[in-house]
Amino acid sequence: MKTLEAFPYSNILVLGLAKSGTAAAKVLLKNNKYVRINDGKAIQSNDQIEELKEMGAEVIIGSHPFSVLDDIQIVVKNPGIPYDNPIVAEAEKRNIPVITEIEIAGLLTKGPIIGITGSNGKTTTTTLITEMLKCSQKPVKVAGNIGKVATDIAQTTDEDETMVIELSSFQLQGIKNFKPNIAVLLNIYEAHLDYHKTFENYKAAKFNIFKSQTKNDYLVYNADDPTIIEAIHNADSIKIPFSRKKQLREGVWIDEQYVYFKNERVMSRKDIVLVGEHNLENILAAIAAAKLNGATNSGIYQVLTTFQGVKHRLQFVDTINNRTFYNDSKATNILATQKALGAFKNSIILLAGGLDRGNEFHDLLPFLKKVKGMVVFGQTADKLAGIAKEAQIPIVVKTENVQMAVKEAYEISAPADTILLSPACASWDQYKTFEERGDMFIQAVHTLR
């Protein structure tokens, strides 16, 4: 069993269970720490809670009394719990540090860590890096916001294995000393303001990814993003830029014919099968991180000539009567939908809508020129219908959900059209996750057959 040698706290509050809280609690208990668990939504008969009690945890569920902080030295917070939560706010008043489970994962990991963050493209880039290393016969494991709890994966990672971690702003806001050996910053765009309250807070959380890096670490960054360029001046790490707009003799770049790592020609551009200009940025970032970690050009080539995208991120689903269907359910903000719309040259039927977070969607207007029809659903249906009217889109249909939207989209489409689910909204008004929403889309497409 791996031990938490550099974790100097004895009494810990785990606030919020779910996957990350449960994983953190188990590791702490195995390391003979006193662990108190507080979760307002859990139920007494939960098998998971019974297991934690048997391991020695004190469990307080159903409410959040301030007394849960008594004698506590540090709080391990579920990333989804906001910082204005009363217990978190009280902990900060008492000068009790608040961290997320990623901090513990970093202490457990003895091998190299590649951390990836950005407003969009994290999952695609994380997957590309992982596959490039695998195809280069480099031992690697993947974790983090991609769906696998980093603390769980860290316990099984050997010193010669690289851990590739997708990192959200929620996770990064709660780190103190965690640092990846290679940090990847993809892009920064206003997002999750319901959680972070201001864009400045959101940026600060994202930029935590390099705050503890040293001169022996690498920071792979988007040289086309002015917000990132301004932020990285204070980074101590070795800076490796990537760009799809300009030549970079010290970074990764692309011209009309080839992809380059510094002055080395890596592969032909025409052999890349992943669609979308925005995905070129993800590809360049992945090449930089993978090459710095020892990936071979042949391994990179093998991935980029076969990889067509991760599930729910511009995922090709099917072609039916010369209509092509793409599932981009992971597009939970406007920027992601902008990038998806820019990925196609032919006419588009756009399916969009979901949780209303106060956005007015005017930033979509310049990207709707190829959209000949929109099918809208969810809480934001009326707002998006208004934007479609403003963009003079000839056909706009309002429907109840994604499943019905697929049928409506097919009926208003013509041969050679792309039917694209790219909601520009979170899914929680109708679906538990964006994955569930995407699966409903896929199922409805297959039903058309």
From TrEMBL:
Gene3D superfamilies: Mur ligase, C-terminal domain, Mur-like, catalytic domain, NAD(P)-binding Rossmann-like Domain
The entry's keywords: ATP-binding, Cell cycle, Cell division, Cell shape, Cell wall biogenesis/degradation, Cytoplasm, Ligase, Nucleotide-binding, Peptidoglycan synthesis
InterPro entries xref list: Mur-like_cat_sf, Mur_ligase_C, Mur_ligase_C_dom_sf, Mur_ligase_cen, MurD
EC code(s) of this entry: 6.3.2.9
Coiled-coil residues: none
Localization per record: Cytoplasm
UniProt pathway annotation: Cell wall biogenesis; peptidoglycan biosynthesis
Chief localisation class: cytoplasm
Catalytic reaction equation(s): UDP-N-acetyl-alpha-D-muramoyl-L-alanine + D-glutamate + ATP = UDP-N-acetyl-alpha-D-muramoyl-L-alanyl-D-glutamate + ADP + phosphate + H(+)
Leader peptide range in chain numbering: none
GO molecular function annotations of the record: UDP-N-acetylmuramoylalanine-D-glutamate ligase activity
Residues annotated as domain Mur ligase central: 116-290
Pfam families hit by this protein: Mur_ligase_C, Mur_ligase_M, MurD-like_N
Residue ranges annotated for the Mur ligase C-terminal domain, each copy included: 312-425
Residue positions binding ATP: 118-124
Family the UniProt entry places it in: Belongs to the MurCDEF family.
Function statement: Cell wall formation. Catalyzes the addition of glutamate to the nucleotide precursor UDP-N-acetylmuramoyl-L-alanine (UMA).
HAMAP family in the record: MurD (MF_00639)
Record protein name field: UDP-N-acetylmuramoylalanine--D-glutamate ligase
Source organism: Virgibacillus halodenitrificans
